[in-house]
Every structure is written in C-alpha cells, then in structure tokens.
Write a structure and sequence with these properties.
heterodimer, A: 648 residues, alpha/beta, Rossmann fold, six-stranded mixed beta sheet, 27 helices, 7 strands, 67% helix, globular, B: 103 residues, alpha+beta, six-stranded antiparallel beta sheet, 4 helices, disordered N terminus
C-alpha cells in the first residue's frame, strides 16, 4: 500500500496543529492566535496497516492567497494535490466553515470535515446534527476537541475515505445556506455565569490583591507583613544569612505565583464568560491600556526580578561563583587547560556561566510568561490596541505578532513576518526586528541590569530604543515603494491556557536554547580564547577601540562584549551584565552600552534567516545600516546625556 | 441623539447609498446603510459588500444575508459574525452595507 498524503487544512486558529500533534505524536507549536504555523509540518502515522503522511498547514481563508503563509498552503493543495483533505474547523462557526468547505470542494479532492472545539460549542449551546450534515455535504463529518484529543479516533477511522464533497451548480453562498437550512442550524444563545463561580472568582481576586498590596505597601512603610513573616519563618529555620532554597520557594509562591497567577487562573478556569469579559476589556482602549500596563509589570516582575535577580542570584552568585568555579580552579593545575576552562576567557568560567547561570534562568521565566500570553489569546487584542501605532510605521496591527514573537527569538519571528500581506510590510518588520527588538534572553538581562540601576536608566534605555523603532519605521514607510495593506484580523476567544501545553512549549524552547544557543556560547568563548592566545584579540580590540572608547566613551573591555554580541546578542548582554555588576561600567556607560547592544547587529542565526527570507543583498544592506545606526545613536545618546548632565 | 455621536465621517459626506444624506429618514426602513453607521451591539443583516472589501470580507464568512453586529469602533472596528470576532479598520468596515433595523 502506498503512502497516502493527508493535508490538515482550515481557517487560521482552528486547531490544526493540535490535531496534528495528536495524530502523529510529533509536536507542532500550538497557540491561541492566528498565524502560529507559517510553514508545512510533516508527520507520519499508520492506521490499519496503511501508512499516512500528515501535513500541518498554515491557515487559509479561501482559495486566494493574500499572504505568504496562505500561499504555502495553496501551493500544497493545488500543485501537490494530497490524497485527502481534512478540513479542521471551528465548530462554533458553521456558516464560515461550510463556506470554506464549498471552496475546497472546487479542488475535487476527497474531503473529511472535522468540527473542532466541540467543548466550546457545547458550552455555547451550539449543537450540530453530524449525521444529517454528513449526508447533506456527502463527506464524513467528525467532532473533536483538539486540546484534549477527544474524538481523534474518529478521524483515524475515517482517513481511508474517498468521498468527494457534493456541490454542483449552486454558488457557494446558496449551497451553504441550503445546508444550514437542512441541518436546522441555530446560532448560539447567551450563556450565564453562576453565583458560585462569581463568588469564587471575587474571593480569589480579593485574596490575591490583598497579598500583593500588603507586601508592597507594608514593605514601603516598614510595617511587618504577612508575606515577610512567611519568608522569615522559613529562613530562620535554615539558620543562614542568605535566604535558603525553602525561603526562595516561599517567596516564589507568596510573592509571585499566588497573588499574580492564582486569581487569574482561577477566574479563567471558572467560566468562559469571564474570559469573554476579559476579552472585551483587553481590546478597548481605556481598559486595554490598564491591562497592558499590568501585563507588562507582571512580565517585568517575573523576568526582571524573579528570573534575573532571584534565579540568577542563586545560580550565578551562589552556585557558580561561590562553589563550582573556585572548586574547579583548585582542582586544575595551572597551565593550558586551566586557562581554557576557567581562565579569563574560560569555556566554563565564561561560556557556561553566561549561558547556564545568567541567560538560562532569564529565558526560562520568559518562556513561561510568553507561552501563557500566546495561549491566552491576549496577543490579537494587543494588535487591535497597537494598530494605530503600527500604521505610522507603514504596517498594521497584524505586525504586532512577529514583533512580540521577536521578544522570544528574533530568528523565528523573522520567519513569522510571512503573515504580513505585502512585501513592503515584510521588509519593514524584518528591519525593525533586526534593529531594535531584543530577544528574550537579552531583554531579561537588560531588565536585570536596569532593575539594579535606577528607574531613569530603564526609561532612557527602553525610551531610546522605542523611539528609534518609531523613527526608522516611519522613515522606511516613506521611502520604500509599495503600500500598506488593510488591517483585518480574526480575534480568537480568550482561553484558559493548559498548563500541560505551557510546560511542553517551555521545555521545548528551553531544549531549543540548550541545543542552539549554548553551543554558540561555548564556541564564542573558544574563539575569544584562541584570539587571545595568538594575541589577535588585542589587535582586533585596538581596531574597534576608537569607536568604543573614542566615540562611545566606554571602557576598553566593552569591545570584547560587542564582538560577542555578534555571535549572540544575549551573550553580549550577559557580558555587560557581568561588567555592570562588577562596577567596571559607570551607570551612564551602562545605559549607553545597553542601548548600542540592543540596537546592535542581528546575531548570526538571524543573519542567516535574513538571507533566506530577503536575499543576500538586502541582508547585507540591513546589517551595515544597523551597525552604523546603532553606533551613531549610542554616540548621540552619550553626548546628549553628558551635555545635559543627566544622572542615570 | 446619542446614538449618532460616534457616527464616522462618511455620514457628513452624505454617501449612504441612496443619494440623500439623512440617516434618520432611513433608520426605520430597509434601505441599506454602511456598517459604520450602525449603533453598537445591534444585529443587522448584510445587504451587500463593496468591491474593495469583497475578497477580504467574504473570507470571514460575512456575505449578504448573514447577521453582523458592531462591537467596538475605537481603536479599530471589531465586528461579530456568528461566533467569530473580526477586527478591521474603518476603511474596510465602511465597505459593508447592512439593513437596519434587523429585518
């Protein structure tokens, strides 16, 4: 029996990737926003001895491609022609679903209709008579819940179907309406929130708010707090000046997770109508701005404080600097290996310390927060709020998704620019990503540095970078040919993120970091070590010294850090973190060097993706422009701050 | 009168599809009006969609005969059609003509 090719096709955010993961036991990234998948994923499965190749495709709205990711899917459908199309659809929108079915029928490929999100339809009181529907359209119809895998067996059983969709003569609209009539389709009724759920939600919010406020104001006023009592009662048992592991755990639960996550999770889990209310608040200007500020401050708390302060403190200061490195230094005899492993540019004392003790805790906390954001459905609402801002840069609200993804990893985000509709938009977004969107590790390290500095430093660094993005975006939107496309974006419902999916995504991303980034950290340190050995490093530093010490007025060692920054920007940032901590950099120098590092050239990985997506010529132009631009901005900032005698 | 406070610019230009600019006159009748005129949270049936918005809007399941409502106007339009919420800019929203009140 030959391999049967099965394509999972459907509207964006219908749950194709979730179904794919269940069918093939291969994980494809699942999120709650349209445009998560921008490329074809392939996986295999066997049912009753028949092997199948399953294709997970980017979402489509019709048979006309309006963006690169839709083109990818349509190419598969029209040129490759799979043996079976499984239309994965949002069961809550039968009319829209059938309209796409009508279009897919034009391809004359066997079809299977999967009404996904059965749980949500049921909650909304929408029920579809599957058998009648199946009879009307002439192909098997199944109902599934993509998140849990319910109903997947039905898809497996029906994979060998050869049924074609019955539609002749009528226009798609006539066909859809006649079927809806035959099925007796009723639109959803409003749902209710029970008193118990309301009470539970209120109590949880109040308790969470109490803990949080009491901790903040109590600490500010010098009053004893319940939170402080929990901490002290734990650390007094461990009998040490440094808070022990137990106290850290208590701080974690009491100070971060409980007040922040619990009420939210509770409320979201309790009922969908809270989700709906939250969804409405999040997309309105006034309430949305408040929610954005809260979300950002939570992110800052989690990544900047918990990740970059608490976890880094534990790993770097306590584990690496106090025990691990001195122990290795005692163990190894002085000589080549000593220098190679634990010397000034040692693979362990620099490479691994930066990678594991500084960057990993930061990216770990960021990845958790980020997965949570992705799965909640908040990001498309943020796109609504930021639409006007992006329009001034020749983009539209849709561009928010690649930008926010860029905070995770600029390299992946550069590929996600495919969801933008015009060439001009893709180019602008790519440049902005390479220029000023810091990746998670870098962002966390920056947060860690400025959290240790002053509030002014935070404002100056982020303010400068943000202004530069606006300026460059505005100028590009004026000088590049082409036009901006209209903003249309489907807004998915707010959903309670599944912890299993968050953990899965976080662990996948951490694994990705360990596999992709850590070797580069080690490699970078090795290159530095070798350059240092053959005395080339000093020569190179001398070469860039006029720029670093002359124009930017930074210490000489910063040059090394900038060199590392090209390998990976977070590696460079970790170097700055180290320097700022040890007091090599004055606060003004910290601000200038951080700004330059943030705007600095894209890392090597991003450079390769740039070439793939935009071609070599454009990539070189972008890289050259960004290098020159970041140094100029840094120099100007330095002059300005010194001239105005601003203390940061 | 408050219902008209948020009516967008097109109302002033008087291009509402039947040649005269008077909104009040048509509100009780079945003449189509632009979606951007429609009061918030009020279901209305789509009459037609102008050429510029057609390919875009058809893909979201919005075509003549279906019921839509406007959920929000600012910072950009959010309309609801069946269980789908779609955010779109005013330029596109004004391409959709609806019958109001709900027929």
């Amino acid at each position: 029996m030959g391999l049967r090719k099965v394509a999972l096709v459907g509207h964006p955010n219908a749950g194709k990737s979730a179904i794919f993961s269940h069918l093939t036991a291969r994980y494809a990234a699942v999120s709650n926003y349209p445009g998560t998948t921008v490329d074809i994923f392939r996986g295999r499965t066997t049912v009753k001895g028949q092997p199948y190749e399953i294709l997970d495709t980017p979402g489509i709205n019709g048979l006309e491609a309006r963006s690169e990711d839709e083109r990818v899917t349509l190419d598969i459908l029209q040129k490759d022609r799979p043996d079976l199309i499984v239309q994965v659809a949002d069961g809550k929108n039968l009319r829209r679903t059938l309209y796409l079915t009508a279009r897919l029928a034009e391809l004359k490929i066997p079809l299977l209709l999967d009404l996904n999100m059965k749980d949500e339809s049921q909650r909304k009181g929408i029920s579809v008579d599957v058998e009648t529907l199946s009879r009307c359209i002439g192909v098997p119809v199944v109902e599934t819940v993509g998140t849990t895998g319910q109903g997947l067996q039905q898809i497996r059983d029906a994979l060998d179907t050869h049924a074609l969709c019955m539609r002749n003569g009528e226009t798609p609209i006539q066909w859809v309406e006649s079927i809806l009539h035959q099925v007796g389709y009723q639109e959803a009724a409003q749902e209710r929130w029970t008193t118990l759920e309301t009470t539970l939600w209120t109590v949880a919010i109040l308790v969470g708010a109490f803990f949080h406020l009491e901790n903040y104001f109590g600490a500010a006023l010098g009053w004893p707090t319940l939170y402080g009592w929990i901490i002290s009662s734990f650390s007094s048992t461990s009998q040490s000046a440094q808070p022990g592991l137990l106290a850290t755990a208590a701080a974690l639960v009491g100070g971060y997770l409980f007040p922040v996550l619990l009420p939210f999770l509770w409320a979201v889990r309790a009922d969908t109508s809270f989700n709906e209310k939250f969804g409405v608040w999040a997309r309105k200007f006034a309430t949305g701005s408040v929610i954005l500020v809260i979300a950002l401050s939570l992110l800052y708390q989690l990544v900047g404080n918990l990740g970059a302060q608490v976890f880094v403190g534990l790993l770097e200061t306590q584990l690496f600097a106090t025990y691990f490195i001195p122990w290795l230094q005692l163990l190894l005899p002085a000589g080549f290996f000593y220098d190679l492993l634990v010397g000034q540019y040692g693979v362990i004392s620099v490479g691994l310390t930066y990678g594991i003790a500084i960057v990993l805790p930061v990216v770990f906390t960021f990845f958790i927060a980020f997965s949570f954001l992705e799965d909640s459905g908040y990001l498309p609402r943020l796109a609504i709020l930021s639409d006007k801002l992006f329009r001034s840069m020749g983009l539209n609200g849709k561009a928010l998704l690649p930008m926010v993804l860029g905070l995770g990893c600029v390299t992946m985000a550069t590929m996600t620019t495919r969801i933008l509709n015009t060439k001009k938009e893709r180019l602008i977004a790519t440049v902005l990503l390479a220029l000023g969107v810091p990746c998670s590790a870098q962002l966390g390290v920056i947060m860690g540095i400025v959290a240790g500095a002053s509030p002014q430093a935070t404002v100056v660094v982020f303010g400068t970078v943000f202004t530069q993005l606006l300026v460059v975006g505005y100028v590009l939107s004026r000088i590049l040919p082409g036009h901006r496309s209209d903003f249309v974006l489907e807004i998915p419902p707010i959903r309670c993120p599944l912890w299993s999916n968050i953990l899965k995504k976080t662990s996948l991303r951490v694994r990705w970091f360990l596999k992709e980034a850590l070797p580069l950290f080690v490699l970078g340190t090795l290159i530095l070590f070798l350059l240092d050995r053959i005395a080339l490093l000093d020569r190179m530093i001398e070469l860039v010294e006029p720029v670093v010490t002359g124009i930017l007025q930074l210490p000489r060692e910063t040059a090394t850090v900038f060199l590392l920054g090209f390998l990976r920007r977070d590696y460079g940032a970790a170097g700055l973190f180290d320097m700022a901590r040890s007091g090599t950099l004055s606060s003004l120098q910290t601000v200038v060097s951080l700004t330059v590092m943030t705007l600095f050239v894209p890392c090597i990985a991003n450079f390769f993706v740039l070439i793939k997506e935009q071609g070599l010529k454009i990539s070189l132009v972008i890289t050259f422009f960004i290098t020159a631009y970041s140094v100029s901005v840094g120099a100007l900032l330095n002059l300005l701050l010194r001239f105005l005698e601003v203390t940061v | 009168m408050s219902r008209y406070l948020f009516c967008p610019r097109e109302r002033m230009s008087g291009s509402n599809g039947n040649g005269n600019g008077d909104y009040a006159q048509q509100s009780g009748e079945t003449h189509p009006l632009r979606l951007t005129y429609l009061p918030l949270e009020t279901p209305a049936r789509v009459a037609r969609i102008d050429a510029a918005g057609e390919s875009l809007v058809l893909n979201f399941g919005i075509y003549p005969g279906v019921s839509v409502q406007v959920r929000q106007r600012y910072p950009c339009y959010v309309i609801k059609c069946e269980e789908t919420e779609v955010a779109l800019e005013g330029r596109l929203a004004s391409q959709i003509w609806v019958y109001y009140p709900h027929a």
